[in-house]
Amino acid sequence: QPQTFISETSFVKLVFHVDNFTDQTYFSFDSRAEQQFDVYLRYGQHPELYPNRRGQIAPGTYCERTFTDCRLQTCYVQSPAYPGIYPRHLHCTYKLNTRQPFIKLYIENEEFNIDGQRCENIMTCPMRPISSGAEHCPYDYIKIYDGKD
């Protein structure tokens, strides 16, 4: 099935690596530049009206973002390249804050693709035991902490 990659920057490098090259080895892809307002799943409606909805990127990082005033607007916390495939070997930190206490995190009508398993609904994902610590979960995971640090 086709995979989509949406760049976080204006540059993309594509590396094609094969172990055994034959006359049957090939690949093909399409590429196009789109405006933010054309990528609704990524930027929401009217991204020009909400420039910080996806958070502010931390200088010198690829995917660390800070979200402010999420109570006044909906914040879009997304993995890099969402809704397409996300790059490997990333460690992203997202910091959310509001002016008043209490942040409610909820997942609504979204998709999950953790560890290469795509799930249209969290209820239909294959069940896995809950683990703690990176040594028990060497693949993809999400951690949530409560507090400033």
TrEMBL record:
Pfam family, one: CUB
Annotated keywords: Disulfide bond
Gene3D superfamilies: Spermadhesin, CUB domain
Cellular component per GO, a single term: plasma membrane
Domain CUB: 63-149
Alphabetical list of InterPro entries matching this protein: CUB_dom (IPR000859), Non-NMDA_GluR_Accessory (IPR053207), Sperma_CUB_dom_sf (IPR035914)
Protein name as catalogued: Neuropilin-1
